[in-house]
Structure formats: structure tokens, C-alpha cells
Design goal:
This protein has 170 residues and is mainly alpha-helical. It has eight helices and two strands; from the N terminus they run H-H-H-H-H-E-E-H-H-H. The chain folds into two domains: 70 residues, no CATH class; 61 residues, no CATH class. The chain is elongated, with a radius of gyration of 18 Å.
Length: 170
């Protein structure tokens, strides 16, 4: 995957896809959760996170207390030592997040996560395309259009399906 071309495409399409997602959210047609799940499955047949890892390079997950406990145990550290070494509190929203970007657990040569088996819930759910009541998360998808090729492709495919089915006009 070429991240530069992905980002260029994402920025070109961001305005139209953001507008589409907002219009879709306002209309809130029936069947969107099923369509989103179906589209999610289709998208992942052509996306390999290990060729990208842009989320790990440019974002930080929110660490829940259960994440901290699980990961610190895996690393044979106390939760307090783990937090002191790797985490900080986001001044804007109070979330517990990584101090560093890219993520300290990402191997930049291979794009492998050294704590994959015990990674934060936020990471395991990313890019959150399978959420129930999918239209309540359009702000998340809009924010991730330029960060995640799967999100961009998902939004493009959703737009195509919605227009083809006459749910929204172009």
C-alpha cells in the first residue's frame, strides 16, 4: 500500500464523503447496520493492515483500566509503572493515551504490534465499522477517512450502494 497516494485520495474525497455521511445520518434509513456490516466484510478482502499501520503511526488508542491491567500483566509490570512509563492523560478529554506516536508497541520495520494478543480494546475494534447503530458514529468515520484505508474504502462503497439503491441522490 502506498500511504502517500492513499492520503492524497482521502483528502480529495474527504469533503464529499463527509457530506454523504452527514446526509445519511440525517436521513437515518432502515437497514444501514446490515449494509455497513456487509460492506465491512467486502472491504477487508482487499485491505491488509500490515502493509499500512497508519493508525498505529498517527493515532493513539484510549486505554481503559482493564486494558492497563491486562497489558501491564503481560509486560510483567505494575499498572502504575506501565502508566508512568507509557501513558498520559489527554488534557482535552481526560482519556488515558500513549505518550508517544508512533505507538511504542509498533515495530516500524514489520508493522507488527508487540502486544497484539493483549492490545487495547480501542485497537482491536478499530476502525469501528461494525458498530451497532452505525450512523451514530459517522463523526468517527469522518475523522478516520485520511487515517485508515479501510475506512475510506468503506465510506466510498457505502456511498455507492446508497446511491445505487436510491436511498440518497448523488
Amino acid at each position: 500500500m502506498n500511504l502517500k497516494s492513499f492520503k492524497s485520495r482521502a483528502y480529495r474525497k474527504r469533503k464529499s464523503l463527509t457530506s454523504f455521511l452527514k446526509r445519511l445520518q440525517r436521513k437515518n434509513p432502515a437497514g444501514m447496520d446490515a449494509m455497513a456490516r456487509e460492506t465491512d466484510k467486502e472491504v477487508w478482502t482487499n485491505i491488509d493492515c500490515l502493509t499500512c499501520a497508519n493508525c498505529c503511526k498517527t493515532m493513539t488508542p484510549t486505554f481503559l483500566p482493564a486494558d492497563i491491567k491486562r497489558i501491564s500483566a503481560h509486560l510483567k509490570m505494575t499498572p502504575a509503572a506501565f502508566k508512568e512509563k507509557w501513558l498520559t492523560v489527554d488534557a482535552d478529554n481526560g482519556d488515558i493515551v500513549n505518550i508517544n506516536q508512533p505507538c511504542q508497541f509498533l515495530d516500524l520495520k514489520t508493522n507488527f504490534c508487540s502486544i497484539y494478543e493483549v492490545r487495547p480494546k480501542d485497537c482491536s475494534g478499530f476502525p469501528h465499522l461494525k458498530k451497532k447503530d452505525v450512523l451514530e458514529y459517522t463523526h468517527v468515520y469522518t475523522d478516520n477517512l485520511h487515517r485508515c484505508p479501510a475506512t475510506l474504502k468503506w465510506a466510498e462503497e457505502m456511498q455507492k450502494k446508497v446511491i445505487e439503491q436510491g436511498i440518497l441522490k448523488k
